[in-house]
Write a structure and sequence with these properties.
InterPro entries: NAD(P)-bd_dom_sf, SDR_fam, Sec_Metab_Biosynth_Oxidored
Distance between the termini: 45 Å
CATH superfamily: NAD(P)-binding Rossmann-like Domain
Protein name: NAD(P)-binding protein
Order of helices and strands: HEHEHEHEHEHHEEHEHEEEEH
Keywords: Oxidoreductase
Pfam family, one: adh_short
Mean pLDDT: 88
GO molecular function: oxidoreductase activity
Number of helices: 10
CATH topology: Rossmann fold
Number of domains: 1
Structural class: alpha/beta
CATH architecture: 3-Layer(aba) Sandwich
Length: 354
């Protein structure tokens, strides 16, 4: 575990010879906001930062605090409004970005789930996706897929190229290929008990999101071995949404105890952002599972000669959980076969959305 002083010194050493383009999905609050602010301070006016989120008022306040580029620079920090729970909205935003940007160096996805990640609420979006999975997985997959051409362009220009999804890495949750969309879990949720006990579909959505993000980075890292992909956990963070834990009124005393414990053990947003940026800046290519201090839990660098080649399902270990491309991965919950099934299901769902 690196000390905060070591992390700050490492981050401060980042001084590229070009103007990096940084996209932060979920940059209007929480860890995403803190990362955007830290990167703006660190790079002064020498970075083009694009915040994607729902809250225009918060974005205006955040961008106003950034060091300003001059007119001669030819660009300005931006806010792009998007309700990322809608895959149609995500597609439209990505199409607009691809049309006007030449490259993206860092794609950072931090936006969380619905209703403050409530354990007692679960619903289905108008597009037919479990609300937790929509934010914790599907939109992350779609932003990555749609903006990867710009990240590839950055790499081809000899620049940094990194996709980071900030969620719940390192727990080794399995990707279970039955009920991938949690429709059965949703139908089994007892609505009379919602608001009292945790919802089956909500809890499964939270857990599945952990595993599915392992599959997300494994899939795209295999196709693009020249780029860095990271699934990282921020740990316990004191954000504006930390004032309550939505466990339902029946479990309110437990919620209060857990909240007190969280406050005692948590990082501040700014501290967390520094550790996340530390993990963002110290690698060139490969897949990385990282903890809340930016330390590598496990990693795999694919053979660059296998560019655009999917995970090898012919491998004898393709069915084994915690194994990626024949390599045992600590804290990784996928298998080559389960990742392939997840990606096939994801593409099937996204194909039905205009």
């Amino acid at each position: 575990m690196p000390s905060l002083a070591v992390v700050e010194a490492s981050n401060a050493a980042f001084s590229p010879s070009y103007i990096p383009v940084i996209i932060v999905v979920g940059g209007t609050s929480g860890v995403g906001q803190a990362m955007a602010e830290a990167l703006a301070r660190q790079t002064k006016r020498d970075a083009h930062i694009i915040i994607i989120g729902r809250n225009a008022t918060a974005a205006e306040r955040i961008l106003a605090s950034f060091p300003k580029p001059t007119e001669s620079d030819g660009w300005a920090h931006e806010f792009v409004q998007c309700d990322a729970s809608s895959m149609a909205n995500v597609r439209a935003v990505c199409a607009s970005l691809r049309a006007r940007l030449k490259s993206v160096n860092f794609l950072i996805i931090t936006a969380g789930g619905p209703a403050s990640n409530s354990f007692i609420e679960s619903s289905v979006t108008p597009e037919g996706i479990n609300s937790h999975l929509a934010m914790r997985y599907f939109m992350r997959y779609l932003f990555t897929k749609e903006l990867l051409p710009l990240v590839v362009c950055a790499k081809e220009m000899g620049q940094h190229a990194h996709v980071m999804t900030v969620l719940s890495a390192g727990f080794g949750m399995r990707i279970r290929t039955t009920d991938l969309g949690l429709h059965e879990a949703q139908s089994r949720s007892i609505k009379l008990l919602q608001g009292i006990f945790p919802s089956i579909a909500a809890v499964k959505g939270l857990v599945a999101g952990m595993a599915y993000n392992d599959g997300l980075v494994a899939h795209f890292a295999a196709l693009h071995p020249e780029i860095a992909f990271t699934h990282i956990q921020p740990g316990s963070v004191l954000t504006e949404g930390s004032s309550s834990l939505p466990l339902g009124w029946f479990l309110a005393p437990l919620s209060w105890v857990l909240l007190c414990l969280k406050r005692a053990l948590s990082h501040t947003q700014d501290e967390c952002a520094k550790y996340m940026i530390y993990g963002l800046l110290d690698v060139e290519r490969g897949l990385f599972i990282r903890d809340n201090y930016g330390d590598i839990i496990s990693a795999h660098v694919f053979n660059p000669d296998r560019k655009n080649a999917p995970l090898d399902l012919r491998s004898l270990t393709a069915q084994k959980f915690g194994v990626l491309n024949g390599v045992l991965m600590k804290g990784y919950g996928g298998s080559d076969a389960s990742v392939a099934a997840l990606v096939a299901y994801t593409e099937q769902v996204l194909a039905t959305i205009p």
